[in-house]
Amino acid sequence: MMFAVRSSIATRLNRHLLPSSSSCRTTSAALFSSEPSIDVSTFQTTLTNLAPSISKSLSANGYYATPSPYSILPEHSIRTMREQSIHLRKIGRFEQSWSEKIDASGKVTRFDKEGVLACEPDGQDYHDAPDLIMYLSVMLQTLPDLLNSQEYGLSASSFNAKLAVTSPGGSGLAGLSAYGTSCS
């Protein structure tokens, strides 16, 4: 069973992330500080406080959406991550998003998600998107333990993070998400 944890950050990052018509390849050092601006302690405290409502929503709906636009991170952090997402898009880190479906016989079929581009940020993207990497790292290190204390069996070692961008007419569910990918 897989649950998605989505926040309003996804909505804000999801707007207009298509590259500009210019072939701007500004170095990330000129765009972003090498140190993330996210206050890790405050972020972890916020996740801890929201864990019961996240758990309840996951159980009832299979997803979680924040109660207000800036209930997890402040506006300046969201804007910074949006700028970093745009930068990742401009430097070619996004590719066609796809999924797999498994039929009753066990046959796996891959299909593209029309109108959706995706990036799976990792440590190599730190200098290009330090706040995004910090956000994903804290989210993925904090949430499994918090949700497991709420009776979930999420693996703390098996997870994925994806940043997705939709073009007009693309999937309405894309955004910045942290996924717990296995339950015991």
Report on this model:
With 184 residues, the chain is an alpha+beta fold. It is 36% helix and 21% strand. Strands 2-1-6-5-4-3 form a 6-stranded mixed beta sheet. Helix 3 (40-61) packs across helix 5 (130-148). The protein starts with a strand and ends with a strand.
* Average pLDDT reading: 74
Give the proportion of residues in helices: 25-40%
Q: Number of helical segments? A: 5
Order of helices and strands: EHHHEHEEHEE
Which strand order does the major sheet show?
Answer: 2-1-6-5-4-3
- Regions with little confidence, pLDDT below 50 for 5+ residues: 1-30, 172-184
Number of strands: 6
Rg measurement, Å: 17 Å
What structural category do the secondary elements indicate? alpha+beta
Assess the beta-strand content as a share of residues: 15-25%
Provide a brief overview of the structure:
With 184 residues, the protein is an alpha+beta fold. It has helices at 8-13, 28-31, 40-61, 75-90, 130-148, and strands spanning 3-6, 63-64, 95-102, 108-119, 159-166, 176-180.
